[in-house]
Amino acid sequence: MSTPHVLLGLLATGDKHGYELKRAHDERLPQARPLAFGQVYATLSRMQRDGLVTVTGQERDGGPDRTTYALTGEGRAALDRWLNDVEPPYPYVTSTLLAKMAVALLVADVDRVRACLAAQRQAHTARLRELTVLKHAPSATLDDVVAADFAIAHLDADLKWLATTLSRVADWHREVRHEPTPGP
Q: I need a surface site. Which of 101, 140, 166, 181 has the fewest CB within 10 A?
């Protein structure tokens, strides 16, 4: 995710201070990792330095100073370029799950690898159920539903990979260990 571009998009709807940006991010992207306040303010500082946002005011409402930011013309142009760019499919497979299974094949026996895959499948299935409940909750917003659909599609793909890998684990283990394939 491009935090600067998301913040630019949120600022495109009107001037906001850091707390409002964090809250808007967390509401609009409910299944994403919540932004830390430090990340918001560090990103705003870099965007101000780069001319993408400008300070429009400061207020103090019984607490710390709140600096309000606005999108600049350069910021709007950067946001428009980002929105128009097609996101390419990732050129590399970077998954902790895949890496863990590849390492497990090196250091564990087939039964332990199968147990790891089965435990992971159970965790994915539990998360799939949680998201399905969230998606159908009476209080679910369209943001919640769209984010849950995105996560469900990825979990479903992982579950298919887990099932396929469980069926191949013995052959994969032999290949990794450079063991001969059993004959007829």
A: 181
Q: How far is CA 123 from CA 23, 34, 97, 146, 167, in A?
A: 29, 22, 12, 22, 19
Q: Cα separation of 104 and 102, whole Å?
A: 5
Tell me the CA distances in angstroms from 137 to 31, 42, 127, 133, 151, one per residue in order. Answer: 15, 35, 15, 6, 16
Q: How many CB atoms lie within 10 A of CB 31?
A: 15
pLDDT bracket for residue 2 (50, 70, 90): confident
- Tell me the CA end-to-end span of the chain in Å, nearest whole number: 51
Query: Is 79 within 8 Å of 71 (Cβ atoms)?
Result: yes
Residue found under tokens 């299974």: 101
Q: What is the DSSP annotation of 157-175?
A: HHHHHHHHHHHHHHHHHHH
Least confident of 23-32, 44-53, 120-129, 140-149: 23-32
